[in-house]
Structure formats: structure tokens, C-alpha cells
Task: structure prediction
Amino acid sequence: MVYRNSSDHFFHEHVDNSMPIDFRGETKSPEYIVRVDPITGDTTTISEERVKRLEEGGYGVSVSLDVKPSHGCVLCNYEDDYKKPVIRHTNLGDGENVPVTMPNAYPYERVSWITAYPPFDRANGDHKQLVSQLDYTDLDFLIDTLYEIAEMEYNRREETNGIALLDFSNIGIHAGSSQNHLHSQRIVKTGFLDPVQRTMRANCRRLFGQNGENAFDTYIREELKRGERVLFEDDDIFIGTSFAPKVDNELIVIPKSDFTHILQMDARDYREKVLRYVLGALHALFYYKGVTDLNLATYQAPFDEIDDSTTYRWHMRIFPRKASLPSQQGGSEFGYRNHVISTMPSQTVRTLKPWFDNGPEESLVVKGLVDHFRKNK
Result:
């Protein structure tokens, strides 16, 4: 086994070549890379041939923005279906222009909330559907409503038997399973932690024992040492491409403060500061990589382990979706949790970083989005 780019083996990487293949009159033995995420334990395989095929234009970026109003949108017309309990986050805005949290009509836990974000166009369903339509207010709403739901569920955890709060947001036409209205789901886990959190807890405790520091601090330090996957970094936050991504162009966002849970980020200005550069990353993914749909997940400590700052760190992962496919995953992912990737994380950084360094440039916008860029810049 070959370990590359790490002297202390924090980032595990195996590099090899396939068996010789005779294909179209050519004999080849392509290189492939197997990586293991030190935090989640997920395995990723990056194929040299798949990357080359994409870069050579055989499977170029194709973007369709044939977006129409969603007439009869359930979330725009939530008042028709929901009487109570409905939470209107009136402290976050004025009049109708505030987020609304309501129970999931099709729950898969005892407590399952959906937070929908304005505008609510009852007549036409003309709500936000594109990543490019997001602004700072949307991300402020996202993080502030998460704080309010987390506070409520933490305070009543004995009543609900809640042990942790899961949070993810669906952004884009095809990002949600049934709704294209910008929304988040906040789910209170009961009984057992989800498998991702269980694995992360075990790995982070093991890494703390090895390195004597929180695993996310080690992660940031090791990535800064290499630089090739660093998209943005300052005194407050690190944004980079994932070392072992589950999907192409996946990003990870890690605050540098030792917060384990959203409830420890009680200063609203700090929460907004953390998200300030996330918006740039989302817009860069849209315009420079043609990502029209994505899921944004936040991770935090279980309710009874909030004080364990050696293990946990509140952080965020951004998962771009392929709108042309029914699912990002196939047999390798479903059967063996082995994620097959067609884009090198370092290449994603080279594509997106000019957005942060120089601001938006039309020459870097993917062909199908140039007109949209001109109208919205």
C-alpha cells in the first residue's frame, strides 16, 4: 500500500494501476486512487480514466435552466394543510417574509420538522429554485432557524426521548425528494444515533488519542500543509474540497472555534460570519461547475455530549447533485459504500478558487449559464 501526501498517515491513500486492458486497439493500465475519509470512514475511488474522460470534453457540463413556477406548491400553500403546530420565525424578519417551520407530513422519526424559506407565492408557486438565487438572507435564515429548532428540541429532549438533531437542506430543482421549494429538514433522532454519527464519533475519538487534538483541527492543519484542496481559509473558517468525497465537487466547511453544536454558536453575528463565504462557494459551484442542485448537511454533537470538544466539531458538508441522474449513487455506493468519483478534488479547487481570489468572471462561467450570469451579476 502506498501512502501519499502524509507523513503521519492522517490521510490514507492507496495508489495503483488496473490490470492491462486492450480497448479500441490500445493497451492501457490506468491509475486509480483509493482514499479513506479520516472522519467518516467512507471510501472513495477516483479513476484516472474517468477524470480524463470528463476533462477532455467527452462528457462536458450540460446545464438546463428550464425552470417554471411550481403551481400548487405545498410549501408555498402550507396554511391550507397545516393548522398547528406551525412555527413562524417572526423574530428573523418582517411580515410574510420569514421562514416557517412545520411538521413533516410524512415523518420517519417521532419529531421531524420542515423549515421552508420565503418567498411564499400562494398563487403561482414562484419561489426560489436555483442556487444562483440564494443570497445572504437565505443563509442567515438557514442557520438562525437551525439554532431556534435546536434550542427548542434540546430543552424538551427528555419529553421526546431525543438524542441528537439531524439537519440538511435541499437547494435546487431536483435536490429534494418531493419538493423543489428551498427547505431544510430537522429530524430528532431517538433510540440510536445514525450510522454516520456513530462512525464519526469512533474515528474522532481514535484520532484524538493518536494526535492529542480534535480531529478537525488536525484535518485543517494537514490540508493547509498541502494546500491543493484549500478553497478559502481565514481566522474563523476553513473551506475545502473533501479529501475522500462521496460525490463530485463535494465541499467541507469547518469553523476554527471549538464549537461542538449550533447552540454554542449563540452570537448571531458569528453564525453569519461562518456562512459569509459559504454563499460564494455555492455560487461558484453553480456558475463555474454547472451545479444546479445540492444538499447541505450540518453535523454536531448529540444532545448529551455537547461538552465533548475533544471529539466533536460543528461543521458542514456541501453535496452537489447530478440533476441528469435519478440518483448520484449506484451499485458500488449502495452495496459497498465505495464512492466512485469522476473529478479530482484538487481540480475542483483550481476551478472554483478564482471566484474567491478575483471575483466572478464571465470567461470562467460554463457555457450554458453565460446568459443567466449576465442577467444576474
Q: What stands out?
A: The chain is about 30% helix and 25% strand. The mean pLDDT is 88.
